Amino acid sequence: MRPKPLLLACFLLHFLIIVIISCRQTLWLVGHGLTMLPPAFKDYSERAETVVSDALAQNLPPSSPIRRALLTYLHIAGIERPYGYFAPNVPVSYKLVFELHYSDGRVEYEVPGGNTAAADLRLAALLDEIGRTRVDALREYLVKLLARSTWREHPDVEAMRAILGSRNLPSIDEFERGTRESYEFLYAYDFSLEKESSRLESP
Amino acid sequence: MESCKERLIRFLFPAQSGNWLTILRIGLGLQVLLYALSLKRDWIYLFAGTGEGLNGRALSEGLLSTESPVVPRLGWLVTLGSHVGLSEWAVLSVTWWFLLCAACGLLAGFFSRSSAIIAWFLHLCAAKSGGLVSYGVDNFMTIGLFYLMLSPLPDRYSLDQKLRKLKTKDRQLLGFFRRVLQIHLCLIYFFSGLTKSLGSGWWDGLNMWRALARPPFNVLDPAFVIRWHYLLPFIGISIFAIEITYPVFIWPSQTRGIWLALIVSMHLAIGAFMGMYLFAMIMIILNLAAFGTTLNWPVNRIGIHHSVSPNDNSSSHSILSRLGVNC
User: Fold this and answer.
1) Closest approach of chain B CAs to the CA of A201, in angstroms?
2) Interchain contact, B45 vs A114, CB within 8 Å
3) What range defines the domain where residue B258 resides?
4) Predicted model pTM
5) How many CB atoms lie within 10 A of CB A14?
6) Are residues B37 and B121 in the same domain?
7) pLDDT of B6-41, one tens digit each?
């Protein structure tokens, strides 16, 4: 068998990295006030998160071989992400609707989706990314990706408006009183065949 | 007196049979097979970089390159294919078929190591190139396939052992990789439970409601969920309590079966009530491979172990468990 000390060293390093990544996420959540811990924990967590990030070579330049080697390992071992799914709270979800304008004045509405439930789960992850990002250019790029694929399915569409909104789920009490899911408008993008896109409105 | 290092080595390198590896191999084979089949109709749409696809690959791979240029991705295969005159569509289709063949190889245990490496590589390519459309299941599949690829294959129930007469020589190495999987699961559940426990919504049932009513996980009718709303706080607290205490209660033989049953039930419920079948399946496979073979299954009690060698730790586990000794 391979020498035990070598395996032991790999084992310790592997799990040290996993623990550090998981701790960093927990500290980040506390530091950003996303947990129910009192505000007194915020400063401490922010400082601790900086130290933990340093341990993951995050302070090194992107071209640093150490940083790149570490990130490569994280990706190939599948340990680059922490494990706080739906934590500390279930995040808001988003809905994207395309308003399709035809040359004869007809207007149709389409929600982007795949052919299967498995693909829909994956597209939901993309919608979350679109909704969460604070980078306007990235959001527009991602909406454009979905708009292009929708356009391919409806080649006779003349213009298209993409409307992004967040879903507001009612609380349990509200639901019992008859309130149902509502949408809060976030962004709209207009697309036409002549020009790429222009963002019309934002909150 | 035994030093800490010696105790650690004894814990990390127990001599074990390959039963857990058989479960992991067959389970991951099935997982990769269902992963490929479930995405068959959307494979080109999700991963094509031009033409008929979503075209998200360029961005995912671009972002990946800023982190590391040597992480596998579909773009490499497409470039390679273009040198021999293959279109992107053809390369992606061939990739899908290879993934399917690797899954079948894993299921049968035929060329187990090669199948594991191919499955890991191709799934990783898809997961990284489709980074924008990936979610938890991809991470756990990568973790499982990464460990499987490194583990001492072939296991004793594989066709490789039956037909090609290849043998696993090192039982301690088998034990080591099982420990790695076991400890990884403990960390996953502990941190998952810990971060959930910090959110007020897991204490008052609001997160359970949101998780069940949030598209695309809203498999159940919200009116049905509301009818049982008084149970939601209990279920929410139970979930993070089971997760946080997983590293404590999964090791002693007296509680292992209960915690394994609880965690498997939780994942079955996620699959059935939230529609995350593949996610549920990978978690159940990892759990059963890590801890499932050390349980006192009825089949063990009727004396199936006659062919197991004295070094087989799974039978030792079983015997010691019956005597109330923790493994």
Assistant:
1) 24
2) yes
3) 174-327
4) 0.89
5) 16
6) yes
7) 888 889 999 888 899 999 999 999 999 999 999 999
